[in-house]
């Protein structure tokens, strides 16, 4: 039942042996994991189609959506990932992966989804540098903190913070011909004290791309495309498990209503006014805790 509207089945009976026959077509050389995961997927997809009495026209509309997503995807646009995101799937697998890697004593910084806009090879920048170029209409912020080993509390030397966020116009640099290459991205490496600091913008909420199938789906579901203001990080260090995460501005209008369901309490932060710094009106303190291998 969806929103209390239970499917109204016709009462027709479908061949009860069909799904098992499809699962059993799996050959002996399939790996145990493929056998398990695909057998389960076939079962769930068939049950879903039967329960909702999916028609050929409805199924074909879904196929068109998937094909469209593939056709419009390239290195600047991962529409398949975006479709998963609006369905909560990337956030769910993030939660599963984090919980599998974490036990009661093991509480490193919470993870959050990577999203479709990460770029490898962001410029390495010196500690204290800015990642903001050619943007006049943003609120500048200094972000700082320390990377520590969560078990010992000791600073982590050689930790790399790979950071990225959108411009105030709601676009990542690769979506926006008016921004310089790798704008609002950078990699910062900690010294022996594990500390980091850099200038960025206090980010703004923005809509995920909604001119494709993911946007169409949001429209059909009567949902908005906005994400709360966020900054992405991959924090890695030799001997430690890398953390993919995001931090979110507590004051954002969409903080409880993220279109891709990525917000976690531990990742909600407070930007505060910064005094006496001509380079930034706001500051944000945040520490990252890593788990060793
Ligand atoms: C984003 O900017 C993002 O971070 C995620 C997770 C999904 C879509 C757009
Ligand atoms: Fe993002």
Topology:
Elements: H1 18-24, H2 32-52, H3 56-71, H4 79-86, H5 89-100, E1 139-149, E2 160-164, E3 185-189, E4 195-202, E5 206-207, H6 213-220, E6 226-227, E7 230-236, E8 243-249, E9 268-269, E10 272-273, E11 282-285, E12 288-290
Parallel strand pairs: 1-11, 1-12, 8-9
Antiparallel strand pairs: 1-4, 2-3, 2-7, 5-6, 7-8, 10-11
The structure holds 3-methylcatechol and fe (iii) ion.
Fe (iii) ion (FE) binds at residues 115, 117, 230, 232.
Q: CATH class of the domain at 103-290, anyone?
A: Mainly Beta
Give the helices and strands as they follow along the chain. HHHHHEEEEEHEEEEEEE
Tally of contiguous helical segments: 6
Average of pLDDT: 95
Assembly state: single chain
Derived structural class: alpha/beta
Helix content: 10-25%
CATH fold group of the domain at 103-290: Protocatechuate 3,4-Dioxygenase, subunit A
Specify the CATH homologous superfamily of the domain at 103-290: Aromatic compound dioxygenase
What proportion strand? 15-25%
End-to-end gap: 43 Å
Molecular structure report:
- With 293 residues, the chain is an alpha/beta fold.
- The chain has a domain at 103-290: Protocatechuate 3,4-Dioxygenase, subunit A (Sandwich), CATH 2.60.130.
- Helix content is 25%, strand content 20%.
- It is built from 6 helices and 12 strands.
- The protein has helices at 18-24, 32-52, 56-71, 79-86, 89-100, 213-220, and strands spanning 139-149, 160-164, 185-189, 195-202, 206-207, 226-227, 230-236, 243-249, 268-269, 272-273, 282-285, 288-290.
- The strands form 3 sheets. Strands 1, 4, 10, 11 and 12 form a 5-stranded mixed beta sheet that branches.
- Strand 10 (272-273) and strand 11 form a beta hairpin.
- Helix 1 runs antiparallel to helix 2 (32-52) and helix 4 packs parallel to helix 6 (213-220).
- The model has no long low-confidence stretch (mean pLDDT 95).
- The structure holds 3-methylcatechol and fe (iii) ion (FE).
- The site of fe (iii) ion has 4 residues, from strand 7.
